[in-house]
Design a protein that fits this description.
There is one protein chain. This protein is α/β, with parallel strands linked by helices. It folds into two domains: about 1-245, Rossmann fold, CATH 3.40.50.300; about 260-410, Nucleotidyltransferase, domain 5. It has 16 helices and 15 strands. It has helices at about 1-15, 15-20, 35-40, 55-70, 85-100, 100-110, 165-170, 170-185, 215-220, 225-230, 235-245, 310-320, 335-345, 360-370, 380-390, 400-410; strands at about 45-50, 75-80, 115-120, 125, 140-145, 155-160, 185-195, 210-215, 260, 270-275, 285-295, 295-305, 325-330, 350, 375. The strands form two sheets. Strands 3-4-5-2-6-7-1-8 form an eight-stranded mixed beta sheet. Strands 9-15-12-11-10-13-14 form a seven-stranded mixed beta sheet, sandwiched between helices. Strand 3 and strand 4 form a beta hairpin.
């Protein structure tokens, strides 16, 4: 029995990635992921891992959490992600790993008992191995807007607490930083903090995190050059650089910065809308609602990497929800096809023919009104990012084009729909 115990402990210490293969993660590699998992488990200091999207860092983290729970049964873990829904995803993954026959074998080999989960829900897991008087759950997941009051942890893990919201909102960046600084107060003496994620902004919370190790998309070799080019074609250069190359592009030529936001969706009701339709190729479909109230212009936007026919029904839902049935759309590409479809759905459609250079239009009309624009918090992050990344060389411009077009049509041409 002791010999088997030693073999299992050697495996967990030297080659934990193999356990990942057993429990259903065959893509974990010895050269890369084994080192990540070992750092999560055995490092003697706070650590930060920045790795590109699709690098299996969260998979490694879930596996490391499960292993930690069976080899350190007197210690507890506090796990933070951006939202409660994000937490649920990982807690479920950890629970599934722990309930597998592979972990029952490992636990019996080490401790001579059968592994059971005596508490399991969407935010907490406690096993029968947990031997402490602390009163806390063995694993507790919290969204960063949840309460940390009274919480204490031996191992504190943050995973993707910095996301696209931090890129577009200084208030969100400041809030994330304040939560991260609070973690030092809930870390038990002798405990550690592990951070994982990808950078979004040069002033995001990664500026506070220690001992950063970076693995970009070229170092890991996990994504082929062909796949990377396909990914690059679906997003702006700055987003690709941040999420895959782990670097920030200088923004000297960027026209739009520091967007404003609002949360009361009723401010959108009875506005007008605009559709910038895609009919195939690399372009997407952008949908915009605007409503003016005093010196503010309230905006809701959605961006779809789809042909207009594949997203028109979803757009229809938003038009009805926000009572934005007066719709603008150009007829250059479709000779009036979209306008006809919208009229058949019962909407008032203002069809126009576009003859203005796109950069001139965006840099003139959207720039003119930028300080008055407030985006609804439910607006697609991709929609806002496309605006923030826009310059004359931008490959993707559907969202700023849609917003600039409806601003021009309504404000500059003084079309009267009865609410301006």
């Amino acid at each position: 029995m002791q010999e088997r115990t030693n073999e299992v402990l050697d495996l967990l210490y030297e080659e934990p990635y193999k356990v990942g293969h057993w429990v259903g993660f065959p893509d974990l590699t010895e050269e890369l992921h084994n080192d990540w998992i070992k750092h999560f488990l055995y490092a003697d200091r706070d650590e930060t891992l920045q790795a590109h999207r699709g690098s299996y860092k969260t998979t490694c983290l879930a596996l490391a959490i499960a292993i930690f729970m069976i080899i350190y049964p007197t210690q507890n873990i506090i796990f933070l992600r951006k939202t409660d829904d994000d937490i649920t995803e990982v807690i479920k993954m950890v629970g599934k790993i722990l309930k597998g026959e592979e972990f029952k074998y490992l636990v019996f080999s080490i401790w001579g008992v059968e592994l059971n989960l005596i508490l399991e829900n969407t935010s907490m897991i406690t096993t029968n191995l947990y031997n402490t008087t602390k009163g806390a759950s063995q694993l507790l997941g919290i969204g960063i807007k949840g309460s940390l009051t009274g919480k204490h942890g031996d191992l504190i893990i943050t995973d993707d607490i910095i996301n696209a919201k931090d890129r577009v909102s200084k208030a969100e960046r400041d809030f994330t930083k304040s939560v991260y600084m609070e973690l030092q107060n809930i870390k038990n003496r002798g405990g550690r903090i592990i951070n994982t994620g990808t950078p979004w902004h040069k002033e995001d919370a990664f500026t506070l995190m220690p001992n950063i190790t970076k693995y970009d998309c070229y170092q890991t070799g996990l994504i082929s050059r062909e796949e990377l080019e396909q990914i690059r074609n679906t997003m702006t250069n700055s987003l690709f650089s941040a999420n895959y190359e782990l670097r920030h592009i200088a923004s000297e030529n960027v026209l739009f910065e520091n967007p404003q936001f609002f949360s009361e969706e009723e401010k959108l009701f009875n506005g007008v809308s605009h559709i910038d339709a895609s009919y195939g190729g690399a372009d997407g479909t952008a949908f915009t609602i605007i409503k003016k109230d005093g010196d503010k212009i309230y905006v809701f936007g959605k961006r779809f990497q789809k042909h207009i026919d594949d997203c028109i029904n979803e757009i229809d839902i938003y038009i009805k929800k926000y009572l934005a049935g007066s719709i603008y759309c150009e007829d250059n590409a479709d000779k009036g096809y979209l306008a006809k479809d919208l009229r058949q759905r019962g909407y008032y459609v203002n069809r126009y023919h576009e003859n203005t250079n796109k950069f001139v239009k965006i840099s003139t009309y959207l720039k003119k009104y930028w300080q008055s624009i407030c985006f609804f918090e439910g607006t697609d992050i991709d929609y806002i990012n496309e605006i923030l990344d826009y310059n004359e060389q931008a490959e993707h411009d559907d969202s700023p084009d849609s917003l600039a077009s409806v601003i021009r049509e309504v404000f500059e041409k003084q079309t009267d729909f009865g609410f301006f």
